[in-house]
Backbone:
């Protein structure tokens, strides 16, 4: 299959070329240039005049299982702390998920991610009463039906007792064993909830079941309670605790890391583990400010995620800058150079480590992961000021993604899903959500 996206303004991840065409063959980019018409015998040509084509976006930490929570009201909801937000909201929701709700949540979350231009996501799944096989259901919805690249894991935790912890470990180990290393569409992590809900025994069995090449995906020092609880119960802070079990690895994702200290940051850098920043979720839960300079200055691969709060990566990036400035009362922090590193350098590095494919650049040989945005620039646009356009144009005005490709597979064309009937899927999701909410009430 040969495809040509023509007449677009193309940001290839470094430079802007316009008007340009992108040539795709068998899922890979074979060329980008000012003129391809006539010289490239495409099976299909897409006229992208007036549009901006960019590398597909990446969400490095999310929870698709939360997709059906929107608009839900919970009787007796009155949390007094971050842990109580987990107990009274998220742990009530995830316990009510059955097999069918797991699949529907994943489908809706992945469809919304596609609508935001996301071509790859890293998910952290929980459904304590529907653990076995849950990751297959998520894979089938996200990678199969929607067609996104996804790394999946199950959130192992002792919060619901030893049996559920054992099932969580089994589900991660089982799922990781099903993965084909040549499959660049689906990958996996070993999922762990957070230090505060994990016993040493569970960490030990997780470490024993963790394949050498795999990494963990865990929340670290998100709420202010996580570190003091770890010191009190285990006599050590979170990062050295994880390190004791050999869990800090180049593919390990440590989400949040708001309250880790300087020694812990040094250890993360030394182990070459990955940190993922989730600014909007942090602000929503009022859990603290992120030390962006502290991680970037140490050379830690620091990516960007939404933590389940939607999938709009450009709005998330915009907020990452605002959050730094607000927290430090300094308009000169949260620089474009730092923001560029989060979403457009680190997130592709994370995908490369996990999936073994080089994305984030529209270059010959790369997988054709491309988002086409309905954006015509009212001011000059080039490789040096692209971030200004993406943040103050596309993000601020919530502009539409019209076309999306993952390894050349068309996911969205002219603003509509190619293989899914969105109206029908959402009608089904509303029914599913109604049943789910009834189980929680
Ligand atoms: Zn999270």
Residues:
């Amino acid at each position: 299959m040969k495809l040509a996206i023509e007449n677009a303004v193309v940001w290839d991840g470094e430079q802007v070329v316009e008007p340009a065409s992108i040539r795709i063959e068998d899922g890979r980019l074979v060329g980008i240039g000012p003129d391809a018409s006539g010289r490239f015998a495409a099976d299909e040509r897409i006229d992208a005049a007036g549009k901006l084509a960019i590398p597909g976006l990446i969400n490095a930490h999310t929870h698709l299982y939360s997709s059906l929570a929107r608009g839900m009201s919970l009787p007796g909801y009155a949390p007094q702390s971050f842990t109580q937000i987990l107990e009274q909201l998220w742990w009530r929701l995830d316990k009510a998920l059955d097999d069918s709700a797991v699949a529907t949540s994943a489908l809706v979350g992945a469809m919304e991610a596609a609508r935001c231009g996301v071509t790859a996501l890293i998910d952290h799944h929980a459904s304590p009463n529907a653990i076995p096989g849950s990751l297959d259901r998520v894979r089938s919805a996200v990678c199969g039906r929607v067609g996104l690249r996804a790394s999946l894991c199950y959130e192992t935790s002792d919060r619901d007792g030893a049996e559920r912890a054992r099932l969580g470990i089994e589900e991660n180990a089982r799922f990781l064993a099903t993965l084909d290393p040549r499959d660049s569409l689906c990958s996996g992590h070993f999922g762990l909830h957070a230090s505060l809900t994990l016993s040493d025994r569970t960490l030990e069995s997780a470490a024993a079941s963790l394949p050498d090449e795999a990494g963990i995906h865990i929340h670290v020092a998100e709420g202010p309670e996580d570190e003091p609880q770890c010191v009190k119960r285990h006599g050590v802070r979170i990062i050295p605790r994880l390190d004791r079990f050999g869990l800090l690895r180049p593919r390990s994702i440590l989400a949040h890391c708001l309250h880790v200290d300087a020694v812990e940051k040094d250890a993360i850098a030394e182990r070459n583990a990955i940190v993922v920043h989730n600014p909007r979720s942090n602000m929503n839960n009022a859990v603290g400010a992120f030390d962006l300079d502290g991680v970037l200055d140490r050379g830690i691969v620091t990516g960007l995620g939404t933590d389940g709060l939607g999938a709009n990566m450009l709005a998330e990036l915009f907020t990452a800058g605002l959050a730094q400035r607000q927290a430090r009362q300094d308009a000169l922090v949260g620089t474009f150079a730092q923001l560029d590193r989060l979403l457009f350098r680190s997130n592709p590095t994370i995908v490369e480590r996990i999936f073994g494919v080089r994305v984030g650049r529209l270059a010959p040989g790369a997988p054709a992961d491309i988002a086409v945005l309905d954006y015509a620039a009212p001011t000059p646009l080039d490789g040096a000021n692209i971030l200004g356009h993406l943040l103050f144009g596309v993000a601020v005005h919530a502009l539409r993604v019209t076309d999306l490709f993952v390894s050349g597979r068309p996911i969205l064309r002219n603003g509509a899903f190619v293989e899914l009937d969105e109206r029908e899927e959402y009608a089904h999701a509303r029914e599913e959500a109604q049943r789910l909410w009834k189980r929680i009430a």
